[in-house]
Structures are given as structure tokens and as C-alpha cells.
Please model this.
Amino acid sequence: MTLHDDLALTGSEISINNLPASVSVPFVHAHKRNEEVYIVLAGKGQFYIDGEKFDVEEGSVLRLDPAAARCIKAGSQGPLRYMCIQTEAKSLVQFTETDGVPVDVKPSWL
Model:
């Protein structure tokens, strides 16, 4: 499920993905400009990154440079569910602590 249109995203791409047991993304790929952050939500599997294999499981978080050759595979015991967040590398100019500004409004629960 790609959330680009549903959330009207303008600075990132977010997808939630499910790979059935023992299934792999059918290709190795890299990117021209975008880094990716993968967050494993459930299950176990393996990442292939630049010729090396890494085991992942629920709670694993990986950040990949655009040029990194990558692929992912679910483990044999069950599906692998993960989120992928893609953003142009080196485009973040402000972080939460420096980008947030107070707004003079209070929600009804305060």
C-alpha cells in the first residue's frame, strides 16, 4: 500500500508492504536520489545490501543510501510486514526541535 496519494505527500513516499513467507522482492534495485528507511513491523526476513545479507525481525530499522543495491525477502516461518519511507537524500534542512513553532490553539481535551 503506497500512501503518496492518500496522504497528499509532498516531501516523502511511504509504503506498507507484506511479503508472504519465503517470497522476495523480485529484483535488486538502487535509487538515483532517494534514501530509504525500512521499519520491520512484523515477521522475520533478510535484507540484501551491497552484496551482504542481514537478518531482520520485528523492530529492525535500516537506513539505505540511494546507491545501495538492495532487496528484501520474508523468512520461511511467515510473512514479513514492513514500512518503507523514501526521501531525497540530504534534503532535510530542519529537524523537529528547530522546525516546530508554537500555535495559540488548544484542543478540546486540554
In short: The CA atoms of residues 26 and 71 lie 8 Å apart.
